[in-house]
Amino acid sequence: MNAWDVIVPLVALLVGALLTAAVLRSRRTVDEEPTQKPRILFPFVGTELSERALQAALRLARAEHAVVVPAYLARVPLPLALDAPVGRACDEAFLVFEEIEQRALPYGVPVDSRIVRGRNVRHALRELITEIPTARRIVVAAATNGGHDGFTIDDVAWLLRNAPGEVLVVRPDPRKRRSTGAPPPLHAVA
After folding, report:
1. Does an H or E element contain 41, and which?
2. Mapping DSSP to helix (H, G, I), strand (E, B) and coil, where does residue 6 land?
3. Quick one: pLDDT at residue 178?
4. Are 49 and 188 in contact (CB under 8 A)?
5. What is the pLDDT of residues 61-87, one digit of tens each?
6. pLDDT value at 7 more than 90
7. pLDDT value of residue 169
8. Which long-range contacts (CB under 8 A, 24 or more apart) does 78-83 make?
9. What homologous superfamily does CATH list for 37-189?
């Protein structure tokens, strides 16, 4: 038996083991990367987006290399089961998610959209915080006068008392105040 008959298979085995280890390490890094990125929650309650709040969440996510988690808070009435279909509300939420993803593209910010159900806004917020406990920050829009584009004073106060981490509340643009009335169609507002 020749020495080469032993050395060649050993070298081939060693090279194969090194390649396998490198492939497994690269796969693990790719799989673990999204879960290790910080999360910034961006919950919303209506079909309108606060442009100022969305821009704040996107700028913060870009600066921190974080994932923005827009979460539509779907209210499910008490007579229905919590997992009952909320079809129309979800359809509207998907349109908003699409708009958020389009806005996030120029920033290079990844988006992980969610629909969170609750009996009311606070219940849905509690569920969201439980679902994503590693979120560092929550960015919310304060509602305009009679608007459907943000959180009420009471909901913001509850969030400030109960949410872990930082809470950023963005006031609406004072120049864009609307009168009360029927909610406007889906679009971004200031």
Report:
1. strand 39-44
2. helix
3. 44
4. yes
5. 999 999 999 999 988 888 888 888 777
6. no
7. 95
8. 78/119, 82/117, 82/118, 82/119, 83/117
9. HUPs (3.40.50.620)
